[in-house]
Amino acid sequence: MSEINVPQMLWPRNMNELPKEMFVREDIFNLERERIFRGAEWHAVAHASEVPAAGDFKTFDVGGVPLLIVHSVDGVIRVFYNSCAHRGNQIETETFGNRKTFQCPYHRWTFGSDGKLIGCPNSDQYSPGFSRDNYPLNSPRTARFCDLIFITMSQDTPPLEDWLGPVKDTIREALGDSPLRLLGYQKVSFKANWKALSDNDGYHAPLLHKAFAMLKWQGGKGRQFMDMNRGHIGYEGEIKPVGQTSLVKDASIISFRESDPFKGASRIVNLFPVTGIVKHLDIINIRFTIAVNVEDTECHFVYFAKADDDESMVRQRIRQSSNLLGPCGMVSMEDASIFHRIHIGSHTPGNAIFQKGVRSVDRLESEVGQNDESGNLARWEYYRKLMGFARSAV
Q: What is the value of pTM for the model shown?
């Protein structure tokens, strides 16, 4: 645990209530950086298909800490802190690219794709006993699951598969059993706290998103299940096919091609704190999120196809990906406005109160219905304990 003092805030007694102020207080955000983003949690930072070739790299940020993810020339994908081992200067400024070496512009220290220091000018004038072997790029702990690359900044974090717990199988189903290839990105900045994004629930979808009603989409059998120990949420659901509609010129954009919709067309995993994995219709999407500050959040929508897809299937996935579930997609375009309005409304006194699916205000459920909002409450309880907020007795 961080030595930072826990901000004063009393959590409501009822399990279905949250204090709105924790969405907007900067002192709470600062503690989140220490206890969550730099604490004993794993964070997905890339998928292997984003850096498929030797020298490919991607930069990212977790908790304000810059990262450099590199496919090294020896075939290993490594994650480094994006900071020179000499004086701490940021090494790489590009979002992605391909380099076999990385050079700090300040004093021209040069590092190989494996992070080793391979060049530094005037080293004969350095401190006694200087050796390049002692100055590689520093790295956080890393692990890999279903080609997702994870990092943690704590030595106390449990092994990745233990941390993933009951959502492992749903991740496998969402990402499939064959290698993926990168299709592309959409990146968007939301004027909202990161917790507003992670609090997105199943209740709102058919009510907020006009496409559900316009297309007469109906949920079939489905469930949400919660990891009571780590705050992850798994979602397994069906969507009944639309059939004939005049609302879109080409109905293939809302069709199922890869799987039988009655055997589970949707698989969603929300990993604590901010990573989303979505398999919906023929869309394979991972959402990597950056908590920039208390009121700004950046989300990277990354879309994939299967490596063995034919040209027709790749086109289907491309058309569905951004057009349906992207930041301005047919289904999800209203989310950005709602996130911002949550942030505005949270500057008022009182609590946010969950209702749909709540069976008791004194206990939490480990499984709820497909369109219940109560599925988020176990995550909030994990957050409360992790942050050290006491619950009111009355």
A: 0.93
